[in-house]
Amino acid sequence: MAGGNEVLDWLGGQHDAMVDLLGRLVNTDSGSYNKAGVDRVGEIIREFLSGFGITCEIIPQERFGDSIRARIGPIGNTAPILLLGHRDTVFPDGEAARRPFRVEGGKAYGPGVADMKAGLVMNSFVMAAFARAGAPIPMIALYTSDEEIASPASRPVIEAEARGVRAVFNAEPGRLNNNVVTGRKGGVFMKLTVRGKAAHSGVNFQDGISAIEELARKTTALHALTDLSIGTTVNVGLISGGQSVNTVAAEASAEIDLRYVEPPQREAALSAIQAIVNRSFVPGASAELTIAGEFVPLVQTPASEAMFNAYVAASAELGQTVDGEFAGGCADSGFTSALGTPTVCSTGPCGAKVHSPDEFLLVDTLVPRAQALALTIQQLEPA
User: What is the pTM of this model?
Assistant: First the structure.
C-alpha cells in the first residue's frame, strides 16, 4: 500500500481499537425483539462516533430498536455513499453472558460477532477515518435494528435512504475466501393456521377433524414444491398444535420459509403454496396463510457490477484478491438493489458459521476490509 493516504494509514493502526469496540458490541445482547438491547448497541456506536465529531439522527421505532443515521461530508449536488448494517442478532437474551466475546487463534467468537457486529465496527471506523480527514466525501451510515426478521420496521427507512444515494455497501460478513456477495435469494416468511374440530380420541374419534393430520399432509405437499434445479426451496421450519394427547386436534400452525432466485419465481411459488393451503386433505379442515415478513432478491445490475468491479480493483491495489459469489441467505441489500441503487453486499470483515454457537470472525480481516472499502469510496468518480 502506498503511503500518504491519511484515511488508509489511520485505519491501518486501528486493529486493537476495532477489536475493543467489537467486544463491547458482542457482549451486549441484541436479539431482534430485545429493543432495549438493540438500542444499547446503538448507544455504544453513537458514543464512538461522537468522539470524532459525528452526530447521529435517531429514527424512533416503537416495537423494535430505533434506526440510527450518521452523516458526514459536504451537502450539495454530490450524492452520498451509504454504508449499511444491522444491530440485531438471532440469539436470545443471556447469550452474551453464556458465550462472551473472546479471541483465540486469530478468531473472535461470541453471539453476532460476524453477523454483523464486525461490520458495524468496520463501517463506524471508516466513517471516523473520513471524518478525521475533513469529511471530503458525503457519506451516510445507517444502523438498523431488525434485519434478522426481515426488517419490518427498517425497510421503509432503508428504501427512503437508498433512493438518494449513489451506491450502497452492506457490511454483512465477507466470505472466508475474502469474497463479497453479488447475488442473493429472495425470501418470504409465512404463517399457516389450520383449523379442524375437537373430539375425544377414544369416545367419539369419528366426530373429530384433525388439524394436525391436515398440517402433516400439507407439509409433505409444501416440501414437494422445492426445485433445487432453479433454486426454489420451501421449508416448514416450525410446527405446533393440539390440546392434549387424547383429543383430536382442533388447531395447528406452522411457519414456512420460501426462497427463490429470480423475482418472477416468487409469484409462481406463492400460487402453488396457496393452492395447497386451499386444499382440504382431511374433509372439513380449513386453513389460512399470512405473510409475516419478506426479503427481495439481490440481483446484480450493470450499475452494481460496475461498483463491484471498483471494489475488486481497489482491493487489488491493497494486495487483496476478491471475487463475487451468490448466497442463499437474504439481506437488506436486496431492498436497495431493487430500487436500482448500485449495491455490493458482504463487504464486512470475514467470518463463518453465523447463527450458530460456532460463529467466528477472522480478526485480521477487520483492518484490510475497512481499507478496501475506504479506498473504493475514495476512487469513485464524483456523481
Answer: 0.92
